Amino acid sequence: MKTYDIVIIGAGIAGMTAAIYTKRALCSVLVLEKKIQGGQIISSNKVCNWPGEAEITGADLIEKIYHQMNNLGVEVRYENVVNVAKNDKFVVKTNEAEYFCDAVIIATGTEPRKLSEKQISMAGERPISYCATCDGALYTDQPVAVVGSGNTAKHEINYLENIASKVYHIHHDDPIPEDAVAIFVAIGRVPDTEIFKELVGLDPDGYIIAEENCHTSADGVFVAGDCRAKNLRQLVTAAADGAIAATEAVKYLR
Asked: Is 214 a catalytic residue?
């Protein structure tokens, strides 16, 4: 199996930025992504806080960054990482193969928080979605429900009100109206770090502990983006983490 200088786990803003920086440093780099490049921002229909773009869709922004990375020749594989271990080298195991490397950058981001068992039971056979922008059009002129109470829920409701015939706002374990044909979940996000709990230190909420230099508790393992324990999670901070983690990983190798 081919050995790489650096394996980057996750192809969101942080992971792709890290790939650009490590590739420009002439490292051999592999990016592993279990779904699709871009992370959660790809479903946003309006991004207004990215420097240089007064307004752009998340998908268009991701496409630009992906093409920049791709044009540098970064290798990307769409596989789900299931374990990372350290022997003489790091062994990154996916659902399809094993990859060896000298440094790892974790940029797995966050995942939507799931419904409670009670809410799942109330939903019954009705479809459950975690992205109104992605799936809202499937329920045009039909009643839907949004579960959640924060800003994310408000955003989903505002978006769906222009599509659905009615939008029910459900708090916590309140009953879901029978006539709602689909349930949209907006109850927050959790870090996608479960598989790394034996490799690096996590805080009580599951975020990977690292200072601004993006070094984790494991030598040769770095973290970037929303899965890092920090005060602000924005596109620009994800990109900054990617650049820092990449720079520190290159220093580590050399």
From this structure: no
**Superfamily for the 114-185 domain:** FAD/NAD(P)-binding domain (3.50.50.60)
Domains in the chain: boundaries? 3-111+189-253, 114-185
CATH superfamily of 3-111+189-253: FAD/NAD(P)-binding domain (3.50.50.60)
The residue from 27, 60, 102, 135 that is catalytic is: 135
Residue 105, CA distances (Å) to 78, 89, 193, 222 in order: 16, 14, 12, 5
Instruction: For 209-246, write each residue's pLDDT tens digit.
Output: 999 999 999 999 999 999 999 999 999 999 999 999 99
| Six token digits for residue 13 | 């803003």
Catalytic residue among 60, 134, 174, 203: 134
